[in-house]
Amino acid sequence: MRLHGTMSINAEGRLTIGGCDTAGLVAEFGTPLYVFDEELIRQNCRAYRAAFMQDERIQGEVIYASKAFMTKAMARIIQEEGLGLDVVSGGELYTALEAGFDPARIYFHGNNKSPAELEMALAAGIGYFVVDNFTELHLLNGLAGERGVKASILLRITPGVEAHTHEYIQTGQIDSKFGSAISTGQALAIVEEALQLPHIDLKGLHCHIGSQIFELESYRYTVQVMLDFLAELRSRLGFTAEILNLGGGFGIYYAEGDEPASIAAYGQLVRESVLAGCEERDLPLPRLVVEPGRSIIGPAGTTLYTVGSVKEIPGVRTYIAVDGGMGDNPRPALYQSRYSALLANKADQPAEIVVSVAGKYCESGDMLIWDLAVPRTEPGDILAVFCTGAYNYSMAMNYNRVPRPAAVLVKDGQADLIIRRESYADLVQNDVIPERLKK
Ligand SMILES: Cc1ncc(COP(=O)(O)O)c(C=O)c1O
Ligand SMILES: N[C@@H](CCCC[NH3+])C(=O)O
């Protein structure tokens, strides 16, 4: 069993995270509970800074993709670690601003930002808008004009590289809701248009080739495609990009068989590809931006559940059901994602049986893990599911009117609440009974 970050097993045979006994965390905060390992979050941020920001030949900026997990405390950690921030909605932007995040280091993504969201970002004075399409470009130009300012933008380009976990493929990728494709000529057209708009300051380009990518070669290939396009823009339009944002997507280990490279190897490959590629094309070096989400926060999150029903179907399967499921982690149901886990209160005991972990939601598809080897399991055991930091809380929902769990940040034996557990009262706080139903 692979342990992550500061995890260890104490003398009582229980899993600890950040020096906190998981049984103690459960007693204090209840379950389901997201536990975030502050040390590991910071280590990952530092690994990214070392990999992308400390090469004197090339200027780099690492921005955290807050869609993976965002709270005010998380925004504080990201700011303390010197990273910028990628937000993709008014809600993520609001959270960052509420936490006091430097607006100049915020990049605003999204394929359908509303006028209100754009207004909010302009008023806050954010650093960059990552503009997806012509509609948005014109809308932003108009709104910036009304304020008498110029909006600094990157244009989202679809490079025609699609990365999968273990491979990449070259596609025309004309049919994508994101960005403007190079292959259709639309990318060239939108750059041309942006250069002519009076309230738009085109700083560079952005692309993103997918998520949970293991294959570093797909990044090397993407750099080549983007640099070819930059060379084309220079020769056809005389435009030189200041910034090249290569998106996020670097994969992590979830379960056996996953083999991600290190953040350092990823950084080295990207930096070297950009340096060599610019030299080959005689292009000035752009400022390099990457926007990882999952690889910063994913392994730093663990979900603790209490085991309830244990149901053996002789000769078929044993189900253990936990007090959460697809509401706090929709990824297995959505993507057939795999996770590893252990019984946190029996962490030193050998596996004796194979069980499948079911959630509590009213869906047959609400299964968290199929075929997990565990010690003998009984109601009241604590199940720790690993690497749930990314796209778990951020995609959590209230299906079946189940309140969303609390989250704690652990470090050096101290546990601090960073998200309060939702109450039943929270669940009905926005419900309105019309007068005519009150009779
Ligand atoms: C535009 C963009 N940037 C960054 C990310 C972060 O990706 P990841 O969490 O895989 O690093 C995503 C999500 O896939 C994205 O769509
Ligand atoms: N939400 C997805 C990744 C998509 C990221 C956003 N572009 C996941 O959980 O893996």
TrEMBL record:
One of its GO terms (biological process) is lysine biosynthetic process via diaminopimelate. It is an enzyme of class 4 (lyase). Keywords: Amino-acid biosynthesis, Decarboxylase, Lyase, Lysine biosynthesis, Pyridoxal phosphate. Its EC number is 4.1.1.20. InterPro entries: Ala_racemase/Decarboxylase_C, DAP_deCOOHase_LysA, De-COase2_N, De-COase2_pyr-phos_BS, Orn/DAP/Arg_de-COase, PLP-binding_barrel. Its cofactor is pyridoxal 5'-phosphate. GO terms for molecular function: diaminopimelate decarboxylase activity; pyridoxal phosphate binding. The modification N6-(pyridoxal phosphate)lysine is found at K67. Gene3D superfamilies: Alanine racemase (3.20.20.10), Lyase, Ornithine Decarboxylase, Chain A, domain 1 (2.40.37.10). Signal peptide: none annotated. SUPFAM superfamilies: Alanine racemase C-terminal domain-like, PLP-binding barrel. Pathway: Amino-acid biosynthesis; L-lysine biosynthesis via DAP pathway; L-lysine from DL-2,6-diaminopimelate: step 1/1. Substrate binds at R294, R331, Y335, E363, Y391. It catalyses: meso-2,6-diaminopimelate + H(+) = L-lysine + CO2. It comes from the Bacteria. The active site is at C362 (proton donor). Pyridoxal 5'-phosphate binds at G249, E291, P292, G293, R294, Y391. Belongs to the Orn/Lys/Arg decarboxylase class-II family. LysA subfamily. PANTHER family: DIAMINOPIMELATE DECARBOXYLASE, GROUP IV DECARBOXYLASE. Specifically catalyzes the decarboxylation of meso-diaminopimelate (meso-DAP) to L-lysine. Homodimer. This is Diaminopimelate decarboxylase. The lineage of its organism: Bacteria, Bacillati, Bacillota, Clostridia, Eubacteriales. The gene is lysA.
